[in-house]
Design a protein that fits this description.
- The protein is of the alpha/beta class.
- It starts with a strand and ends in an 11-residue tail after the last helix.
- The protein has 8 helices and 7 strands; from the N terminus they run βαβαβαβαβαβααβα.
- The radius of gyration is 18 Å and the shape is globular.
- Strands 3-2-1-4-6-5-7 form a 7-stranded mixed β-sheet, with helices on both faces.
- Strand 1, helix 1 and strand 2 form a beta-alpha-beta unit.
């Protein structure tokens, strides 16, 4: 049986969360009745994340672990997961337990009509300053990049792998995948999902990063949208 789903999780120092997260994901994916795998990308963790994953490997035949020699960032971690995924669909979520694996089947319901299904966090359980920063970044991104996704910072997403393979990843580009899918003419939808409070560890990855690099990335995506080739062939004669 061909691989149907690849779950991809970027991890940086999530020793207090990863075992519980895998324990939540496993029954959700098994109930789908399809062949699946879980790729955990250890993005240069300096805590016990790597050791915990190693200990879980003999017990979890669906688990694959990809290790970086140092921290390269979330875009690199996602890219490594995307390139190594064997499934027809790639499912992503954060490693901090704030995304709810129970929402995965709800997103998968839209697979027959869409190529990228984005979770949109309702009742966000984040500090007020993080929510304000995220809203501002999303507003600026929508204005500059022209995409319609309200919460691109939500990592809970489902991608059609054959479409994902056409997207070239660069540093910071994971934030703009909905816009890049839209530029390519792929079908994108946003669905409300649950959001939970972080109980262990602290945020290593964030949407805006308080960096001018993010503005430069937005302008790059804006340029790609404006310069994208868009033509229709009416006939071919021989």
């Amino acid at each position: 049986m061909a691989m149907k789903y690849s779950v991809v999780i970027p991890l940086k120092n999530e020793e207090g969360n990863i075992a519980d997260l895998i324990a939540e994901i496993e029954p959700v994916m098994k109930r789908l009745g399809e062949r699946w795998e879980l790729l955990c990308i250890d993005d240069g963790s300096t805590d016990q994340t790597g050791e915990i994953l190693t200990g879980l490997l003999p017990q979890k035949p669906f688990l694959r672990v990809i290790r970086f020699d140092k921290n390269y960032g979330q875009s690199a971690a996602f890219d490594a997961g995307f390139r190594n995924a064997c499934g027809e669909w790639v499912i992503t979520l954060d490693g901090d337990l704030q995304n709810d694996p129970a929402d995965i089947p709800k997103l998968l319901e839209a697979c027959s009509t869409h190529d990228l299904i984005c979770g949109s966090r309702v009742n966000r359980q984040d500090p007020w300053h993080k929510k304000i920063t995220s809203r501002l970044a999303n507003w600026i991104r929508k204005k500059l990049c022209g995409d319609t996704v309200n919460d691109t910072g939500c990592s809970l997403k489902v991608y059609r792998t054959k479409c994902l393979s056409r997207i070239k990843m660069f540093k910071g580009m994971h934030r703009f995948l909905p816009a890049l899918f839209s530029i390519e003419g792929f079908r994108v939808i946003e669905i409300p999902v649950n959001h939970r409070k972080r109980t262990q560890g602290h945020t290593k990855y964030n949407l805006f990063n308080r960096s001018f690099n993010t503005i430069a990335d937005m302008m790059a995506v804006r340029w790609m949208r404006k310069r994208h080739l868009n033509y229709t062939v009416t006939a071919e004669e021989k």
